[in-house]
């Protein structure tokens, strides 16, 4: 049947009945009123430049000078990556990453850091931390691996600027706001991390989530933190979760490390044997 109320499905960056309205919130900090927003890209007026038109200075070491990071207070330098390396690319029609607020924290951080004159520095030679805005969520969404995009951004930074190589990347950081965070990154596989772990967190997802079965498949005792959520077959009495898992509440999270350290090796063995019986 034809749609009784036809409407336009607008490309990312446009809104309205006929897609004539710009979606300025796609641009970080709405370009700080120093430029115009075009589908997520700030066209800055001189002398401003940068992702949100927040920059107006560039720095270079004087001849014979050496790189000395600030030791008195936190100073973070944020790279300006070109659009072919990292950009909030278009997703489905009329759908943007800003719809999912809990996946949007990297954007909130970027916008807050950008206007923080106390912490942010435009001078990379005084920085003691470096932020790589890889925009990984735009490329991978919440469940796919962000590894390719993050490594692409890091490779560009490593090959273009001197600061990554100076520390081996130890003072560089990125945001990974998908469901599995940095578990996809190549330092260690998700499965290997589970295999060598004694306890694995099982917070809820859309309901009880998938993390419980992933933990059990790797002989890792699930630490279920899901207040007021029944686990599969728990209400029927088919699975005695108290025999093979730890049940904690959100209020226990601040004390999570000492709680887990207090579990004896004998108790851990009991939990794993019971888990094997029911998996």
UniProtKB/TrEMBL annotation:
Molecular function GO terms recorded: glycosyltransferase activity
GO annotations of cellular component type: Golgi membrane
Localization of this protein: Golgi apparatus membrane
Main subcellular location: Golgi
Membrane topology summary: Single-pass type II membrane protein
Pfam families: Exostosin_GT47
Protein name: Putative glucuronoxylan glucuronosyltransferase IRX7
Swiss-Prot/TrEMBL keywords: Golgi apparatus, Transferase
Top-level taxonomy: Eukaryota, Viridiplantae, Chlorophyta, core chlorophytes, Chlorophyceae
Domain EGF-like: 8-19, 42-53
Species: Tetrabaena socialis
Similarity remark: Belongs to the glycosyltransferase 47 family.
């Amino acid at each position: 049947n034809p749609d009784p109320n036809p409407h336009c499905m607008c490309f990312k960056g446009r809104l309205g009945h006929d897609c004539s309205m710009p979606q300025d919130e796609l641009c970080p900090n709405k370009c700080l009123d120093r430029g115009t927003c075009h589908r997520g890209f700030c066209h800055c007026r001189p002398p401003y430049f940068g992702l949100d038109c927040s920059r107006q200075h560039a720095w270079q070491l004087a001849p014979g000078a050496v790189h000395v990071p600030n030791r008195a207070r936190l100073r973070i330098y944020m790279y300006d990556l070109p659009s072919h390396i990292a950009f909030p690319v278009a997703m489905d029609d009329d759908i943007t990453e800003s719809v999912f607020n809990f996946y949007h924290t990297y954007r909130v951080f970027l916008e807050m850091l950008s206007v923080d004159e106390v912490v942010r520095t435009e001078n990379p030679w005084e920085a003691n931390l470096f932020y790589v805005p890889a925009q990984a969520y735009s490329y991978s969404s919440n469940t796919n691996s962000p590894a390719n995009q993050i490594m692409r951004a890091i490779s560009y930074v490593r090959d273009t600027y001197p600061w990554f190589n100076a520390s081996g990347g130890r003072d560089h950081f990125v945001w990974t706001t998908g469901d599995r965070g940095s578990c996809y990154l190549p330092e260690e596989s998700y499965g290997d991390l589970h295999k060598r772990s004694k306890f694995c967190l099982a917070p809820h997802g859309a309901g009880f989530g998938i993390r419980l079965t992933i933990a059990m498949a790797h002989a890792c005792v699930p630490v279920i933190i899901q207040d007021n959520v029944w686990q599969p077959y728990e209400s029927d009495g088919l699975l005695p979760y108290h025999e093979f898992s730890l049940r904690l509440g959100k209020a226990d999270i601040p004390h999570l490390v000492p709680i887990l350290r207090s579990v004896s090796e004998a108790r851990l063995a009991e939990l794993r044997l019971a888990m094997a019986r029911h998996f």
